[in-house]
Amino acid sequence: MNASFEAVVRHDWTLPEVVALFTAPFADLVFHAQRAHRCHHEPNTVQMSTLLSIKTGACPEDCAYCPQSARYDTGIEREALMDLSTVREAAARARAAGATRFCMGAAYRSPKGKDLKLIVDMIRAVRALGLETCATLGMLSPAQAGELADAGLDFYNHNLDTSREFYPQIISTRSYQDRLDTLAAVRAAGLKVCCGGIIGMGESLTDRAELLRTLANLPEHPESVPINQLVPVPGTPLEGSARVDPFDFVRTIAVARLLMPQAQVRLSAGRGEMSDELQALCFLAGANSIFYGDKLLTTGNPDVERDQRLFARLGLNAGGDEARRPSA
User: CA-based diameter of the chain, in Å?
Assistant: First the structure.
C-alpha cells in the first residue's frame, strides 16, 4: 500500500495505512510530517513543560519499564506525597525557567480520596501562578476525573504505552481496557488528554503502528502525544533492552504528526540520551513540545542550559499553546 501523506484529521486509519507510513522513504516521511506541522502549528515554536514527581515509589503495578514499581529493586526510595508549599515553590521555579505547563506525577495505581483532595489544592496553587496544569495519577473513576476538572486541571496524562497485542508482555496488573476507560472518563469530565507511548521495549514496527493508530482513532485526538524512548533502568525487567535505532524513533515522531496533525507531539523520556542532532531531526519531523528541567519523575533529562543552547542553535522559540495555529 502506498503511504497517504495528506495532513487531514481522521479517525478511521487502518493498520496497513499506518505501516505504509512507517516504511515510506525516510526523506519523504519527514518532509510530509514537517508540511503537516506547518499547516497546524507555528513553525520553530516548542511548548515547554516541567514534570515533578509529587509522590515517588512503592507503586503496586508491575510495569516492566518502571523504576517506581515496588516489585523491583531499583534503588528508588519511597517518598510520601509532597506538601503544598514544596510543589508551589517547584512550580514557581519552572515558570521562571520558561515552562508554560507544570505536570505533577504520582506513583499510584489509583489515587485515594484523601490524597486526591491534597492534589486538588496543588492544582489550584499552580494555576494561580499562571501555569497550565497536568497530572498523572494512574487510573481514575469518572467521579475522580470530575473532581480534578472542578479544581481547574487542564490536562490528564495516561499513556497507552504500546499496542493492545504487546501490552500483556509489559504489564499484567491492569488491562489495556482499564487505560481506555480512564481516557474516556477524563474526556467525559471535560479535561484535555495527554496520551502516548514508549518506544524500545521490544515491540515490533506493527506494534508501534498499532499504538499510534489506536490513539488516532479515538473519538478525539489527544491534545498532547508524548513519545518516550525507553530508559532501561537497572533492576527492571527491561534493563538489558537494546537502544532504539535513531531513525526508527524519528519515524515514530513523524507518523504521530501525520496521524494527529493538531496534537502537540512531545519528546519525553529518553531525551537525556539523545544527541542534539537526533533532537533536531525530531523537531523537523513534527515534535513541538518537550519536558524541560533536570529530571523526568525519577530519570534524567537534559539540563536547562543545554536545552537553551540547542534552541539557540536551531532558532527555536519557547512557547505555550499559542504554538498551535488558531485556525487548526
Answer: 56
39 catalytically annotated = no
Which element (helix H / strand E) includes 291?
A: strand 289-291
Per-residue pLDDT, 302: 58
The alpha helices in the chain, defined as continuous H runs, are: 15-22, 26-40, 84-96, 113-128, 142-150, 176-188, 205-216, 246-259, 276-284, 304-314
Nearest to 201 by CA among 65, 297, 18, 19: 65
Residue type, 83: D
Instruction: Give, in order, the Cα–Cα distances in Å from 247 to each of 1, 122, 282.
Output: 21, 39, 9
What secondary structure letter does DSSP report for 271? G
User: Catalytic pick from 63, 101, 179, 251?
Assistant: 63
Grid coordinates belonging to 170: 509489559
The residue annotated as part of the active site, out of 101, 174, 194, 257, is 194
Which residue in the list 103, 271, 282, 324 is annotated as catalytic?
Answer: 103
The 10s digit of each residue's pLDDT in 13-50 is 999 999 999 999 999 999 999 999 999 998 899 888 88
Please say if 59 is a catalytic residue.
yes
Nearest Cα neighbor of 93 from 295, 258, 228, 300 is: 295
- Residue 63 annotated to the active site: yes
Show the DSSP H helices in 151-303 as ranges.
Answer: 176-188, 205-216, 246-259, 276-284
66 catalytic? Reply is: yes
Tell me the pLDDT tens digit for each residue of 165-199.
999 999 999 899 999 999 999 999 999 999 999 99
Give the count of beta carbons closer than 10 Å to the beta carbon of residue 113: 9
195 is catalytic: no
DSSP 107: -
Q: How many Cβ atoms are within 10 Å of 245's Cβ, its own excluded?
A: 11
Catalytic residue among 266, 271, 282, 324: 266
Active-site residue identified among 101, 134, 195, 324: 134
Rounded to a whole number of angstroms, the distance between the first and last alpha carbons of the chain is: 29
